[in-house]
Amino acid sequence: MAFDRRDYDMNSGIPFIKKVFLVMLVASTALFAQSDGSSPDKRENDASALDARQIVSLSIAATERSWQARDHYAYMERNEDRRLDSLGQVKSETVDVTRTILVNGAHFEQLMQHNGQLPSAKEQKKSDEDLDKLKHLTPTEQTARLRKDQENRSFLRDLLDAFDFHLIGEEVVGGRPGYVLQATPHPGYREHGKYGKMFSKVEGKLWVDKQDFGWIKVDGQVTQSFSMGFVARVQGGSHIILEQTCLGDAIWVPKRLEVRASARILFLKSLDIARILTYSDYHPAVDGPYSVSR
User: How confident is the model at residue 266, as a pLDDT?
Assistant: First the structure.
């Protein structure tokens, strides 16, 4: 199984690393519920009386709003992808720098550098061809892409039954006061949905901003191995740390993502990965008008 720079994207559904990210992320979050409709000022004033369920319910609502907002942002990404040996030492490393833009309502990654060099002629040609295809998506294809994105975000609705959450303290992270919550699988949860079978095998912590309930930090890990289709099995001990930053207006976006994952491919080949992604230069994206003609 190949792991290139497209294995992870904040919004689109990408196989292996994306799924690992999602299941460990939800293990570190909290119960899904709708906002109670109160104003931000009232929620802030009442924050001292909130329990774990209320805090994470508000954080999920805030996260949904952030996801919708950052669909309209462009940004830079630095992807350090390391393959490790059995002792955890680096065997090989690739570093890609990409610029993500908005094309036909979808994020598109433009490769800017590969291992410190400009893209090769072959890489540039492939990027140009992919960009042209995205520019000429039909309305039907755009709708299908949007439906897939929504499906990959639907796991939030399953958290109510899948996990137990506990408020374990408060902490200042990156200058932002936050609540610290622990998420553990709920005994007896009957799995359903796309990610349901993985929920019982992950756990983690979540730091929630006390002012606007955005996610400041997520720390999750796989506690039991689980299969992903017929190809790969994610090993216990796989670990992820996500750090976010606030752009203002309660819009929280990834700043740094570190993944340490182990997998067995086709039950034969072991694969150990350390990946660090850093994000910068967020700004509102301009999406040009494109023809849908072939």
Answer: 62
Amino acid type, 32: F
- Residue recorded with tokens 């303290």: 169
pTM, whole model, 2 decimals? 0.77
